[in-house]
Write a sequence for this structure.
């Protein structure tokens, strides 16, 4: 048996750590605007790089927070341009790459987190304390911005209003209900009055193109047998092996903001007995879990059902379609990575 199971881990994050740990995930440590390769067939991608780079220059010039641009231009003087930049587009077009590149291009203090992590910070610290800790930042970067929950929408609207009034710039990528927002739009009928003031703070940048993870690549690798999966876990140092149902139960006991710490330091994740998600709550937890695996470039191997079968046709036809397709895309990339590493390891003289 492998040395560890994810179900044996109980990650905790102390409140005082929450803001200091808001940085891009390891996969994006080395990304920069110069490492983003625009698709020549999609002009919006090169335009997005230029717009993000210009926004980063403006943020860097600002000096950060109320002590920055207000000190430069006088209290109450507006900044040139809107304080927010919103990257909108399909999954797999490099929006997170651009957001992390923007974060790296700006001097601190700055923070980077997912929408879920940001709401968790506010819940753990309290609204006033969260505003106090973040209001001196130059930039707040928010990945996977969501508008599918009225309570969270109102909370973040208020938070961003307070922060932008204090001089903080905000950049975000979209991860929203397509039937609520519409393709390429930053609006939602159900929450329109609440988000009108929020959307007015953002310049929207469209990033078009196909999912780069699927360009010319095959379907997800076939599931392993249980015996092959156990043998792989035993031979792969630092890997974990869990029963899929047990892991799903474990994820339900943890706030999604802890999923990243749950898999920190893991070399590869092996899941035995994968099956389609039976309900939406589980499906959304699996989406968050897949995102954190992808952030950390952790290979995934499974037995049971294919990763492409995690979300059934009814789920893929519903409002969370974009999230489910992104999760399948990312898990497929991680499964291919696992296959590739094992193939190279089995080939004499092949590089590791």
């Amino acid at each position: 048996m492998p040395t560890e199971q994810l179900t044996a881990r109980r990650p905790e994050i102390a409140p005082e750590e929450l803001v200091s740990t808001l940085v891009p995930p390891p996969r994006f440590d080395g990304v920069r605007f110069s490492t983003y390769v625009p698709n020549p067939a999609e002009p919006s991608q090169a335009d997005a790089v230029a717009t993000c780079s210009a926004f980063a220059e403006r943020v860097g010039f600002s000096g950060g927070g109320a002590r920055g641009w207000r000190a430069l231009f006088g209290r109450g003087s507006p900044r040139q341009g809107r304080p927010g930049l919103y990257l909108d587009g399909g999954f797999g077009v490099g929006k997170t790459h651009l957001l992390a590149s923007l974060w790296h291009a700006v001097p601190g203090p700055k923070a980077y987190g997912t929408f879920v992590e940001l709401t968790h910070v506010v819940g753990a610290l309290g609204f006033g304390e969260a505003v106090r800790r973040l209001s001196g930042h130059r930039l707040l970067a928010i990945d996977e911005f969501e508008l599918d929950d009225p309570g969270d929408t109102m909370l973040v609207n208020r938070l961003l209003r307070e922060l932008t009034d204090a001089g903080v710039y905000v950049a975000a990528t979209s991860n929203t209900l397509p039937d609520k927002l519409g393709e390429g739009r930053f609006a939602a009928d159900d929450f329109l009055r609440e988000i009108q003031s929020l959307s007015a703070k953002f310049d929207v940048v469209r990033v078009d193109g196909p999912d780069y993870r699927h360009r010319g690549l095959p379907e997800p690798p076939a599931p392993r047998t249980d015996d092959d999966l156990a043998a792989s876990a035993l031979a792969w140092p630092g890997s974990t092996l869990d029963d899929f149902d047990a892991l799903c139960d474990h994820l339900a006991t943890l706030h999604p903001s802890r999923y990243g710490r749950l898999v920190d330091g893991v070399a590869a994740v092996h899941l035995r007995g994968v099956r389609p998600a039976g309900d939406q709550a589980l499906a959304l937890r699996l989406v968050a879990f897949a995102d954190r695996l992808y952030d950390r470039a952790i290979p995934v191997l499974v037995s049971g059902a294919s990763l492409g079968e995690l979300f059934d046709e009814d789920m893929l036809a519903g409002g969370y379609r974009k999230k489910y397709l992104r999760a399948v895309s990312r898990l497929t990339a991680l499964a291919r990575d696992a296959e590739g590493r094992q193939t190279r390891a089995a080939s004499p003289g092949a590089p590791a």
Q: What stands out?
A: Residues 214-346 form a domain with the Rossmann fold fold (CATH 3.40.50). The first strand starts at residue 84 and ends at 89. The chain has two domains: 31-210, 214-346.
